[in-house]
Each structure stands twice: as C-alpha cells, then as structure tokens.
Amino acid sequence: MDLTPNDEQIALQTATADWCRDHMPLAGARSRSAGLWQQLHAMGWTGMTAPEMGLDHATEALLFAELGRFLAPVALLSTAVAARWTGAAGKTALALPAQEDVRILDGVEASRALGAFGDVLAGFPLDGQLSSMFSLDQSTTLARIARPAAIEPVDDPHALLHLQLLTAAYAVGCADAARDMAADYAKLREQFDRPIGWFQALKHLCSDMAVRAAVARSQLYYAACTLDADDRDAAFHIAAAKRLADQAALDNGRANIQVHGGIGMTDEAHPHLCLKRAHLLQFIVPADMAALLAA
User: Fold this and answer.
1) pLDDT given for residue 198 in this prediction
2) 250, 227, 236, 238: which is closest to 85 by C-alpha?
3) In 3D, which of 138, 162, 178 has the Cα closest to residue 271?
4) In what order do the strands lie in the sheet with 120-125?
5) DSSP state, residue 48
6) Who's near 42: CB < 8 A, 6+ residues apart?
7) Which residues partner with 103 through β-bridges?
8) Residue 197's pLDDT band (cuts 50, 70, 90)
9) Could you give the angle at the alpha carbon of 239 between the alpha carbons of 114 and 62, nearest 5°?
10) Which is the CATH superfamily of the domain at 157-293?
11) Would you list the domain boundaries of the chain?
12) Model-level pTM greater than 0.90?
C-alpha cells in the first residue's frame, strides 16, 4: 500500500493550507468573521465529501488535517459526514450525547445535528434558536438540549468510521499546529544571547513533538486507505489513528505551552488555543478500547 500523496492530492493540500492561512488564521480562532461559514461553502469545503464529488477518504484525510491545523469549525466534521451518508445539504452541527442531555457544538445557523449515539451514527433536526455559549474551545459554541424523542440512524457502519477518521485528521492538524508554533517560538525567543531552541532541553521537547505528529499522521494515512479498500480491519486502524492523533494533539499542546514559558500560560498568547481544541476533539467519537483490542 503506497501512502505517499500523489501530485493531485498535494496540490489540493497546498491550496487548502494557503486558503486557510489567508482567510482563517489560527490566531483569530476566537473572533472568526460572521461570514466564515459562507466562505467555506463558497470554496466547496462544506460539500467536498458528497458522493458526486468522488473524493476518496485518503484525500479527505489530507485536507481535513490541514483544516484542523487552523482550527476550522467543528461543524465541518458533521457536515462532511452528513453530506456523504445522508445527502443533507446545509450546515449540520455536531451532537455529543450525555447522560441527561445532548451537547450541540457549533450549532449556530445549523438546521440539523449529527453524532454518535452509542455505536450508531444518528441525526435529528434542530428546532428553534439555540441558546449557545462558548465551550472550553473558544472557537466553538456549545448549547445543551433535551435528548430528542426520535433520532434517525444512518444505516451504514462506515458512516461512524468516517466521522472518527475526519476527527482524527483534525487532531493530527492540531498536533502539527502546536509543533510549528513551538518551533517558531524557539527560533525567536532568546536567552543568554542565544535562541532558546539552541538549548538541548528545548531541542528534545520540539523533537518529541515532531515525532508524535509524524507517527499520528502515518497512522491516519493508513487508516484512510483501509477505509477506501473496505478492509475488514478498518475499524481497528481508524480507532488506532484516533487514539494516536488525540494523544499527539494533547501532548503537543502541553509541550507548546512549556516551550513558550511564562507567556505560554497567559490568555493573550495562542498556545492554549491548540490545547483546548485537542481536549474537545478527544470527546468526539473516542477510540473504543474494544476496537483497539479486537486485533
């Protein structure tokens, strides 16, 4: 199995990164423009997973990792899955069922929500205006609603795997963002007339971040290819990709704050944005221990 992106995939990946850098910088994650979703729709990001687009999961993983690097809206995950498996058009919020209610992530202007209810992916309409607040991840709104009386299961087990794969891609991008932020700061900040990246302790921190991100990305690529091939072990490989990606995003987010030192602990600096997004992503279709031990 060749895991090397081809020229067309690299071109799409580069175009996605360039657009995100210009229109959706990570530094502005807490104050995104009101028209961002319309811009994402105009660029085709919200509908690129629709069946008629013919995009394979491997290419999706590449693109969603780039979107995740810039902390793209969480609703892109649920919207992408809904477009492929239900044919739903428009924004679909992400649902996180809890014991007594359902948390709706990024539900502003969404007409439906989609999420994992046990081992089934299911959706339901959103009625009325949601009373939203910012979640721990301040780029994402959160609303709580009563559990819907009826949900509409998606009658294909691949749909839930698809959501887990794309969420893992977001986490890989988040790990990459924290790694790059730390490395850039280590080149800029000086102590004792040298960039702090010159000191061995900081070199080790940044090297570990790079290794974690690379391992998670490699597993993501392999998992996406197994889903494309309808491999019988696809669920295991996607669960492994999610576990590795979540851990890389969390560990890199923490290390990024450590590299930034005192300023890394402040709200005015940006390292906390990656760590908070990493914490949020780990709650979305977490890797099931049974799936990881099944092989």
Assistant:
1) 62
2) 227
3) 178
4) 133-134, 141-146, 101-105, 92-97, 112-117, 120-125, 152-153
5) T
6) none
7) 96, 144
8) low
9) 75
10) Butyryl-CoA Dehydrogenase, subunit A, domain 3 (1.20.140.10)
11) 7-82, 88-153, 157-293
12) yes
